[in-house]
## 1
Amino acid sequence: MVDNKSKTGPGPDTNAVHGQTTEAGPSSSATSSQPKTPSARERLASLASHLLPQGNTEFDYVIVGGGTAGAVLADRLTQDKDVSVAVIEGGPSDVGLDRVLDLSRWLELLGSDLDYDYPTTEQPMGNSHIRHSRAKVLGGCSSHNTLISFRPFNADLDLWADGYGCPSWRSSAIQPYGDRLKLNIVPVAPQQRNQVARDWVQACETATGAPMIRDFNAQIAHNGGFQQGVGFFNIAYNPYDGSRSSASVAYLHPIMPHGPYRRNNLHLFLETWAQRLTFDEKDPQRVRGVAVRTKHGLEKTLTARREVLVCAGAVDSPRLLLHSGIGPKADLEKVGLPCRHDLPGVGENLHDHPESIIIWETKETPPETVMSSDAGLFLKVLPDSAEPFPMPSVPDLMFHIYQIPFTDNTNRMGYPHPDHAICMTPNICRSQARGKLSLASSDPAVKPLLNFRYFEDKDSYDAKILVEGMKWARKIAQQSPFKEHLVREIAPGAHIQTDEDLSEYARRAAHTVYHPAGTCKMGTPGRDAHVVVDERDLRVVGLRGIRVVDASVMPILPTINPMLTVLMVAERAADLITQDAWQKGIRRAQWE
Ligand SMILES: Cc1cc2nc3c(=O)[nH]c(=O)nc-3n(C[C@H](O)[C@H](O)[C@H](O)COP(=O)(O)OP(=O)(O)OC[C@H]3O[C@@H](n4cnc5c(N)ncnc54)[C@H](O)[C@@H]3O)c2cc1C
């Protein structure tokens, strides 16, 4: 049993440090095109600003979470210099943090001081030891992750539209937002493609018949997707120095105090934790602001003249709503929180891309790589009828290949840790398991309970996909010249052969691709009792002055790694919010 209640985790006591702001003060260099080294005076000003400003606590928009989605909104909304935006971010700035900015060091961040590190509850059918890494730093998980960058398939967005009651998210409307993204997204540079991965790609092609794809995103942009394919990933990075092109680097750095295009209307409250939302004194349905706590325990309320935009991610967005009394009434009362707005869907629909692992010892580890997981394979292994919404011509199984030993789960099961290894990690593109996030306590510092119900889906679809994946992995391992790199299969080992045994191993050794989503699901209000935000505008159903914009709004994860989809959701949200403001301006309507 995993202890979920013992640690206070990401709340104020352990995480928020200075309650500092990095406020963009008045500057003469707002339009300079050259980045400049901060002067001693600027460094002093920056230090002095490491306190919450006493006077300035009212802004047009207050964004909770300067992560992947929050960075996009902060940039897009401050393009209008007359609009003021506050960003409340639990972690520190990533500027100058080499361990964050150097993509190859991503593994150092897992479980570090920059990780909220959420455990799961006991998983009777799966692995109860999975830790969900969530980044506590500007840029959020895009400052933490491997930056594998896939646009969503057309079929993924059309499934949101036709299967999940989100007609305004059809691919024809949403794909153009992929062209706007500011990240530097390129296929892995040839000089960083190591020989094991090159031979693996070739082995996959030979063993499975999946065609080699040279640029996955070009294929998606031109053809809407593909059914099978193998190749090196598109990654958001600078191939010349291996540095990240995260949401923070691409959207925030240029407009931050020391960036070339600093914006005085952007106010960053770093290492500051959003405790709960506050409501209008006269109007209980109108969210007014956010009560925050700094690392040093300073408490303040930031007020939004227009709207609060919750971008705290799939774990912390529903968590914040629940601590504000927005959620399933019975659950709130169970932990002693008064229910302000009964919304049964908050925290429901928790899901992920679960994966398993098959490990081979190798003779050596070639050094060339971007971040040790540079290539992938997509296959279609089960009939369309296996899914509730059939997805013809879309893969249902994805593999990453790790060119390093990734043995956290297999060590615990007693398998050895080789010095050199490759790991194939089959994952489920559209998992059918649905879990729930709930509160363990009314104390906002206590980590929430994450019950993914891994492998509890009724037809064992998820386990069947992984069994197929393990079998394909072994066929791939038999192909020359790839097989010449291998010494022996470490896990699960040659004695595990039947579907039953493969399933048992795959579930016990299961891990996550770190893609939790869906906990503030969007949809058509009234059509589904678990809809949390209205698909038309991302507003929280039944409330005013609040929208949710991040991975939590996805009704179902896209087939592929979701970061670009999150960024596209945020780009569209920025359009919705600004259009709404313009219309109000034209009608001279008040922000009630
Ligand atoms: C290790 C890892 C590897 C991954 N690899 C990939 C990959 O290669 N490709 C891919 O597509 N996806 C990948 N993902 C998933 C992807 O990064 C996420 O789905 C996506 O970044 C989520 O964006 P978000 O805006 O929803 O949340 P986040 O980016 O997590 O942003 C949430 C932000 O809110 C802040 N916050 C939360 N609560 C509060 C609060 N109460 N007060 C103040 N601030 C708060 C957090 O500090 C954080 O900065 C990976 C994720 C991880 C963790």
## 2
Amino acid sequence: MAKVKICGLKEEEHVLAAVEAGATWIGFMFAPSKRQISIDRAKELAKLVPPEVKTVGVFVNPTGQVVQHVVENVGLDYVQYHGSEEPAFIKQLGYPSIKAISIRSYEDVQNASCYDVDYYLFDAPGTDYAGGSGHVFEWSLLERLSIPRSRVLLAGGLNSDNVARAITQVAPFGVDVSSGVEKKGEKDSRLIKQFIEAAASTGVAK
Ligand SMILES: O=C(O)c1ccccc1N[C@@H]1O[C@H](COP(=O)(O)O)[C@@H](O)[C@H]1O
């Protein structure tokens, strides 16, 4: 069964809904976004997350000092780099990490392997912000992937209607969603539950 990351959470109710429904990762946004939260807010929300569920901080081209400060203050389990961070920068910081790769062409897929990270998050290119656009990219570009599927997370315009198809086609270890569990621009507990149920209904991570 594919694991699920619910990203861009700002309210207690939605953190609790994601945990209860079986999310594996809870994502907090620290980059410019309508979903961005403060360190203090993330600390409050992280207290609601049990140890078996992992917290992820999402950053876009941060300085090392900012990442260190947020990780240490919030107690994050993973750092998600969602900009054009260099492989050496991520490696030097040394945190358990997820690198988002924006997919426009097969060349982007090939370039992913220059990173030495825990997970490779394949996403559609951002529009207003670096991510969270709600757009789907061409999943067939991942057919000839050299990275093991056990390291692959899929994002970009996923929702409870398309996530089962995405898992069947791409066979990722996990899926990641933000806009697809929102109603009128805000997270919705019912949509979070529906998404996790839909992801659980199909596919086996290879
Ligand atoms: O969600 C955002 O606002 C965001 C801003 C800047 C970088 C990353 C962001 N979100 C990430 O993008 C994926 C895909 O989002 P969506 O499901 O297509 O809306 C999301 O899961 C976050 O990891």
